[in-house]
Amino acid sequence: MKILVLEGSPHKKGSSNLLADNFIKGAVENGHEVQVYDAAHAKIGACQGCNACGMNGDCIQKDDMGKIKELILNTDMIVFVSPIYYFGISAQLKTVIDRFYSFNSKLMNKGFKSALIVAAWDNSEMVTAPARDHYLAICSYLGFENKGMILAGGCGTPQMTQNTKYPQAAYELSKSL
Ligand SMILES: Cc1cc2nc3c(=O)[nH]c(=O)nc-3n(C[C@H](O)[C@H](O)[C@H](O)COP(=O)(O)O)c2cc1C
User: Fold this and answer.
1) Spatial contact of 154 and 164, defined as CB atoms under 8 Å apart
2) How high is the pLDDT of residue 58?
3) Which residue's C-alpha comes closest to atom 23 of ligand 1?
4) From ligand 1's centre to the CA of 71, what distance in Å?
5) Tens digit of pLDDT for each residue in 77-130?
6) pTM above 0.90, yes or no
7) How far apart are CA 100 and CA 51, in angstroms?
8) What's the CA gap between 111 and 4, in Å, rounded?
9) Is 156 touching ligand 1 by the criterion CB < 6 Å?
10) 59 C-alpha to center of ligand 1: Å?
11) Which CATH superfamily is domain 2-175 in?
12) Pick from 142, 99, 176: which is nearest to 150 by CA?
């Protein structure tokens, strides 16, 4: 299937992208077609809430979200990748999700699959739980089929991340698809 990996960290070679790389490796080995989009370095304005799109039309903002929309509407699965920033996903990734608004109807109950990969410094469930719950709420609302979550505590740097179980877990997640 087609898999779109949406990366939301400003660190191109950081912890969350390291986990994403492991996910991608397994996915490619299993014959999936993977596209990676670095959402953190894209030019994407925050949703203005103007409602000009009516949740199913053109956004007034002409920026890199047009490309992401095209990629999403041509994929089978979306993988959300982010560092944990103050108990949530990064603003960079949240900005992308808010911009789903203009094509909300095209996303809802259309059979998309999804997964979540987050990396945090602290090794405590409490640190990743809010992002997990937020993601699951979005899955429930949009009718995405959650294929798995990598909630990687103790992954404050790529070096720390390498010494955890999470790179292997990310690899096994894509192998299980
Ligand atoms: C603005 C900011 C907020 C952060 N908030 C948290 C946090 O609430 N809990 C935590 O454990 N780590 C927090 N961190 C640490 C990052 O989640 C951690 O370093 C992670 O590995 C970064 O991933 P990346 O390399 O993919 O960007 C924060 C880092 C930054 C820069």
Assistant:
1) yes
2) 96
3) 83
4) 27
5) 999 999 999 999 999 999 999 999 999 999 999 999 999 999 999 999 999 999
6) yes
7) 12
8) 14
9) yes
10) 31
11) Flavodoxin domain (3.40.50.360)
12) 176
